[in-house]
Fold each of these.
Amino acid sequence: MPGTDATVEIDDTDRLLLNNLQGGFPVTHRPFAEVAATLGLDEAGVIARLRRLVETGALTRFGTILNAPQLGGERTLAAMHVPPDRFDEVAALVNGLDAVSHNYERTHHFNMWFVISSEDERDIQRTIDTIERETGLTVINLPTLEEFFVDLRFTF
Amino acid sequence: MATLTDEERDVLAAIQDGLPLEPEPYRVVADRIGMSEERVLAVVRSLLEQKKIKRIGAVPDHYALGITANGMSVWDVPDDRATEIGRRLGDRAEVTHCYRRPRRPGWPYNLFGMVHARSREEVVAAVERIARELDIARYPHDVLFSTRLLKKRGTRVLRGAPAAPDPQ
């Protein structure tokens, strides 16, 4: 994964915005003015800072986090043990499958971890079957049995 | 998508890449898609209530901001305690995603909690702290670090547009 250093510098006011605006943005006529008042800032300043945070890449975006499972579609987490000398070849095959949305190499005997997602739940088993058939390796399918609510907020 | 009304889809498609950074962002969206501002506000509130939108606000690029280490903590806890421990694990500020999943041959762990921090050392320290404070250190657990991102395309909820970051 990437190095350990931040690539974007932010100041204390940016930090105040980041730490207080990762959710709960008002759904009202003048939301930035409301936020600004709460944080002791002014509306134009908040908007200008958020624009800059998006431009510099500190923010991926300012907007909605959707809840994919509530919007339909199926997904699962799957893993397999790939012999090191076959790793790149197998990664290329797995990555080439459309239903595979994410794939990570991880530090474990099960060293390849991928997310399979599709609007059609049958694609999940089909994708697993294809990988097992093409590679001769065993895929372990680890579907979500229960999701525990987490409020994904970082403190900067 | 069958689970969205046409109106909901129009509003989501217009805002999922970002809200306009303008004093009246919902009015700008409304003008763009030919809906009244009141209607856009009502649809967005309803999407939040239905939990189709998890939340609205700043979506930080935690890698750019230095939170670059991600460890998947995995735990083998008794089945009859999995829900209770999963809830407490998910409540921890250090844990960004938390799931119960099945065990498989060679894979004994049934709880997964993603931990993000500034370094691997911080991730390990966080997992040890969690184990101690939740009194679950006696259950087998491990932390898997990602060493390479091999593919990431994001989950597309609406055709042609990127959606939420993925849990893994």
Amino acid sequence: MDNKEIPGDSPHPNGLWSFFASVKLSVVLLLTLAATSVIGTLIPQNETPENYRRAFGEFYYRLFETLDIFDMYHSWWFQLLLLLLTVNIIVCSLDRLAATWKIVFAKQPRFNLNRFRSDKHKISREVPQAPEELRPVIEDLLAKKFTYRRTAETAEGFVFFAEKWRWTRLGVYVVHASVIILLIGGLLGSIFGFEGYVNIPEGEMTNTVNLRNSGKTIQLGFDIRCENFNVSFYPSGMPKEYRSRLSIIENGATVLQKDILVNHPLRFKGINIFQSSYGQLPAEISMTAAPEEITLSFTSKETGMVYNKTVRSGERIVIPEDLGEFVINDFQKTYDFRGRALGPTLIGTLVQKNGATVEVLLPFKFPGFDRMGAIIDPQRDDAVLISIDDVSSLPDQQAKRFYTGLQVTKDPGVWVVYTGFVLMIIGCVIAFFMSHQRLCVEVVRRGRQCLVTVSGSANKNKLGMHRKVETIADHLLGTAGEPLAAPVPTGQNIKKEDQ
Amino acid sequence: MNSSLTLSITTFLYGFSAFLYLIALVFKWRTPGVLATGFVFAGLIGNTAGIALRWAESYQMGIGHAPLSNLYESLVFFAWTIALLYLFIERRYGNRVIGAFTMPLAFLTMAYASLSPNISDRIQPLLPALKSNWLIAHVITCFIGYAAFAIAFGLSIMYLIRHREPGRNGSVLGRFPEPRVIDDLTHRMIMFGFLFLSVGIITGAVWANSAWGRYWGWDPKETWSLITWFIYATLLHAKMMRGWHGRRIAYLSLIGFAAVLFTYFGVNLLPGLHSYGAMGQ
Ligand code: HEM
């Protein structure tokens, strides 16, 4: 960063303008935003007044309430800080843009020869060639490393100017613009968007959702039907996947059907539907009798093979791989497992290879239940796991009625925000890692030889530019060339640091 | 050889390297320094192998996923990034003093990950909300950013020690890089970190939007990452004000890193619900 370019040489001497154009203000604002944001992380936001009263007492409750501390990120004063930051960024950018624009879009880039000549880090060497001989060599090299080049003849030889990445001076403006775009996107979302939720039992549909903040209900303009809901578990009992099959119904016709998972929402007409929670219906219509036959799958732990078998109640079957025998001998409409209602459940007996018999529970609602059971029951040798293969093919769908909890949102600002995201990344890469680099090679005749001087400048990363000047000088002059004039003290210094 | 063992060895290798860098600095010896570099190399290989093995093991367990899904795994990746960035800097700047200030961080991270009773190193299956490529991108970028800030932190401490005295040749301080160079390198690390923190926050927002339908919800973890971002943005701008060189910038960098640590460890102590990747049900 070129510190010399910064201090406010504003063309507007106006007090208010220069107040908003100052970097000092932005430092103050950014620090204030950082400091105040802490408050909302220490005091939980948007809880009920009773909770706050209990936690803080009446006095502090009143005080905080007046200051909007309980919803501070939406309070007038926090929004005011953001507004000030916005004005600060805009004014500051406009203030500097004119000057930058002139540099970036100049028809012919300007080079200040005297500035290059007085560069502390320039490198000079005498070489045994004539200037005319050197010219094509230098021009070739510069053509490889720079996009713009110009050669001028001087009384005693040539001056070569070259530069690249002039446009990168615009990088910071892209970053600043991205911040504004993000804030605009957020504003759009808060004005025109909503955040709602709805629970839909399997097989039912709805066309309204409840808003999270206000508790109001709004019409969607179409129906969402939950065809079914499934949850599956890992052997450890951790949830593995929540899946809802949803249909979108408009004017009585199904226009879209999709399975949604967490991280895989459904989007329709600007409205997004997310898998958010699930539950079981309290008044559940239960399965009254065991199905006549059912497909079970037997998984061998050792080989990982899965065997599907269709089983009738009371019929004894032999599991492959000598894993034992299995028979279904009971059915219960609701099975109480350590205080937890499993719902309709088949109860079977597994006769293991070692002769021991264990009871196996196959609840329809939790097809992976046996995996958990295998871990719990010390009697099991754990060689085979049994599960109901395909619950959805069961005759009586109502046995396992869940409701799915959906988050339903609309945010027309999201694409604005995403544009801001992309611009911010691009802008930061440009602002941080690219600089406008200029190079000057001056060739002066000295009898039959000539003196070559290389110097460069960049608006950022000056150490990097010195290094580049050195490589170019080495390239052009060969390391063998005798260093001329004063040895280059600072240049060498840098070299040492960089070894 | 399993990942646990490999990563324990890595912890020791980083520990040795940190110790040897310090010895080399204090006693002005060369050999321990060279050895220390070797240990970082070996540690980095072990760290890489550990991550790869853990990845493979998760597939063997039938719950395959990238090893970036919980606190333990993210700390291991954090240490890996610090060591890698450090080696890169050592090569480029040829100065081992920096190692004495950064490798202890890699070591402490690994030691904390392995020894803290609150951190489980079990390989666990992924909760539904964590099954997202955005999450992987989020963790990787955040931790690259944090690692850069960690190194900037080490450099800033170096700066604060070094700038007080002229650093005569031959003294311990004389072996430090010049303050100007430390300052420049700190600034580079912070720019690098800021870019990655920005990308980290952005990918996190995109993930949140695909999982819960909102890209920003002011939950404490999100807010703290934004606070961190504000602090480093302040630093980048303060550098452009007169008189804000060196020391003050170094202090800001310390504050910034404190915010990083709080974002990562402190947030769980706050009132509220957020834990690593909790699902907003
Ligand atoms: C959240 C808000 C902001 C962000 C994320 C941001 C980001 C940045 C970044 C990344 C840079 C490049 C820094 C570097 O190259 O080291 C920069 C430069 C700069 N920023 Fe900001 N900025 C913000 C707000 C502001 C504000 C409010 C001002 C108002 C004065 C401002 C003024 C500047 C100036 C003058 C530069 C230097 C431009 C140059 O290189 O000539 N920034 N900003």
Amino acid sequence: MGSIISPIREPLVTGNKTYNQITEDICAPTERAPSISWVIAFSVANVLAAVFLFTSAWTIWQGVGTWDLNRTIGWGWDITNFVWWIGIGHAGTLISAILLLFRQKWRTGVNRAAEAMTIFAVAVAGQFPLIHMGRAWFAFFVFPYPNTRGPLWVNFNSPLLWDVFAISTYATVSVLFWYVGLIPDLATVRDRARGFRKKIYGIFSFGWTGSAKHWQRWESLSLILAGLATPLVLSVHTIVSFDFATSVIPGWHTTIFPPYFVAGAIFSGFAMVQTLMIITRYVLKLQDYITIAHIESMNKVILLTGTMVGVAYLTEVFVAWYSGYIYEQFAFYNRAFGPYWFAYFAMMTCNLVSPQIFWFKKMRRNLYVTFIMSIFVNIGMWYERFVIIATTLARDYLPSSWSLYSPTWVEIGIFIGSIGVFFTLFLIFVRVAPVVAIAEIKHILKSSGDQYLEKQKEYVQKQQFSEKN
Amino acid sequence: MQSFSFAAGERKFFGICMIIGVISLIITYLTDDPLNSRFWSNILINASFFTGIAFITLFLYAAKILAYSGWHAQFKRIMESFYMFLGIGLIFMVVLGLGTVMGFHSLYEWNNEMLVSEDIIIQNKSAFLNPMWYMFATIVFGASWFFVARQLRALSLKEDKVGDIEFKVHKRMKVWAAIMLPLGGFTSAAAIWLWLMSLDAHWYSTLYGWYTGSSWLVASVAFLILTIIYLKERGYYPKVTDDHFHDLGKYLFAFSVFWAYLWFSQYMLIWYANIGEATVYYQTRLEYYPFIFYANVAINFILPFFVLLRNDTKRKKGTLIFVSIFVIIGHWLDKFLMVVPGVDYTTKKILSATNPEAAAEFSRLIMPGFLEFGVFIGFIGLFGYFVFTSLSKAPLVASKDPYLEESLHHHVV
Amino acid sequence: MANSKNVLFGLYNDDDILIDAIKTARNQKLDIMDVFTPFPVHGLDPALGLAESRIHIAGFVFGLIGAITAMGFMSWISVSDWPIIYGGKPYWPVLSFIPITFELTVLFSAVGMVIVFFTICGLGPGVTAKVLDPRITDDMFCIAFDVSNMEENEKAGLQKFFEETGASEINQKSI
């Protein structure tokens, strides 16, 4: 007997699959003509993506004046969206890297799609600082390079510059991690395809043959990339939190921000994974690979991180009182009872209160509840960033410069459009690449497939619970 | 199944440690300043450190149950013995609490009426920083943790007797584990603020609670590694292999990095924003305790990072013992650095107002001396004696644990 | 092609049978050219006696280069090339440099390792895979022998080996 699995674990691959069936099931969506529902979804996403293109082009053409930002509130929906998308982009790496290190086998069902989601979310997030620059064509100024303006360098003390490095590194490493994992599966698609498709997949699968030595290096590489990606994913949202926490703005300068942002990012990332996977597994008929056990595990992570975020919210409020620092106290009073009270209220209900429903096993395993909750969390986490950014800026030290902010149609268009860009990319992905990691599912089949668990149970029964004990 | 016998030599060893501790405490008490600040801060450092280790082991144990983690199932009895130490550790914390109520120590600035009366900032905090609440929180929070600890321990022992393939007992353990995580998450922060952060009564940091928790976590894993290695040397745990050590080594490595991450986040943000109220904490430490300040980072981050970066060092007992011992001392030094500067500040302030002669004689305790280490050794003796006693009371391996077979065949992929 | 090889290979339909077959081959001192599998089979490396991958060394070296590059470059700029005081911090505010140093360590290490991986494996866009059988990336496990310079009786011996170890198909192909 190979690896021993406790019978207390649920199967992660159901339906009595063979290796060949796994290949068939997962490759099939890339091989058949797109379904009507896909075409409709893709068209809608395309229209929204067009809205994104138009509104961001409008911004660049007319200037950032088309937004409602003002002298007090310099960051509004743009940076809110940026942080929101970056946060969503955390789940993929978390699932593949941290859960790999913690030996959570259920990650194999969802890691591929979650990693793809990460890349698309980071790509979308990256647009917001670019557009916000106004003169987006000068964006390369943010990189330190020898230039003709004398030895003029970027400010290495600025957290915004750290962000530039963090996000470009994160995007690069995520793409590498995802693509290295994808190569063997692309080879599987290649070996099933004919004609032109075979050529295309032949190019993208880099000549993979499945040689033993290649597999060994591939496993070693994946493991080290996971090891690197783990601190990397923590660092990215940490550095995003530094954008705020290094300042002296009350409500921003607080030391809990780094881990609290990371927890929030994981929270919102998992919510988005749930939103996508519940639909994907249904449309692509992957219920045997993304089982209710997977959904339940992710709901547990949502409950855990949601509660961690809750501890952080309450810590902040408590320490604001405890500090005896009136500006800090006012910042939190303003969040709850100021002009943007509804945002604070939405954040608290969606993030802290509503996930508590997942204490009940029935709710964790209910697809409708999970789907609705995932939308709630997405909304709540967007509001959290809005609360942190706009609400705080609206009421600073000087009452004479207090101000209010509400988004213009351009800002709303960019936000809604960014969702369209994200979904366009994701929908293309589910058409061209295997959504579930084929090789990894085959790897765990003999330890987590439902037909093998009965044998495991017999073995454990014999070893642990027979008469001799 | 194997059961552990607490050998006479071991009893003697831990007994001697405890005697060293008691003697050190007595000497500290006799040579102390009039407020006995060194004596009480010594107790606080160690009591909070070992209570914290017990608490965080319970937290980790609960988290492992909920996360379907199985590879540690063989030696989960050691973790159980660790967290049952809560019962002893909390006695010390309650004594410290009684001290705030009855005023037989003056560790906390907020507990001195004279100082508070002329300090508007501390007055504003008095709803939280007052002796009754300190006492109440210590007892209620501590009792709730201890209660969950006892439930989990009792169920774990019960499973040995009545466990079956349906794992009903384990499922009941899951309920208690699920209660423990939010309970521990919320209450530990408040306990840490009261016990430790309030020593610097003016200062505050939102990250302080998690930072302290991560420090306990590293120490807990280090103690776990040392205990397993020792028991394996004595011939127990034949099926604990290099693969288990590899994973324990990964924990030690990862949690050390995590601790460093929190250390950096807290320090860097305070340094960067440079707000007086916040920087004063590090200002004091850098000015008077530079050696410990840098040693803290060197021992607790740089050393485990570079030693355990390689895969083979995580599998060798020698390197693991080396790192574990250093890291335990390192995190104890971290606690020293958290406690002593605040206590010395308060003591000096009280003495200058009440006893100028003693104030003139009083000097900061820049480095832990023999007495500090003596008390530390005493607490190690107490902890070790307790852990070994409770190990000897139950089978060393939980024979009906659902994950036992997994743990016996554990391989690092 | 001048350097094409003549390969005799057997296909197995289960990974456990494959591992047993490899052990038999090693006992019989057969010179296995390569083994192809659809997924990383547990226990394959020890059975084949493959030396552990050293790719992590590349990761460490590249990471070190990244760290030194980042810290060195930022320090040179802030201390020597164009010193500016920002926010009352010293010219060499090492804490401020740690985030970028960390990022570049990870970036160099990851990119370097991936490049090394593709190079030593001979993989890349445009490389044509030498596929013995398309089912190898699906559900077949393959042991291959290089029979370019073999006598007929040796080949027969291999044939027999495949039959005895439970190969479901035995084929020959030039690649």
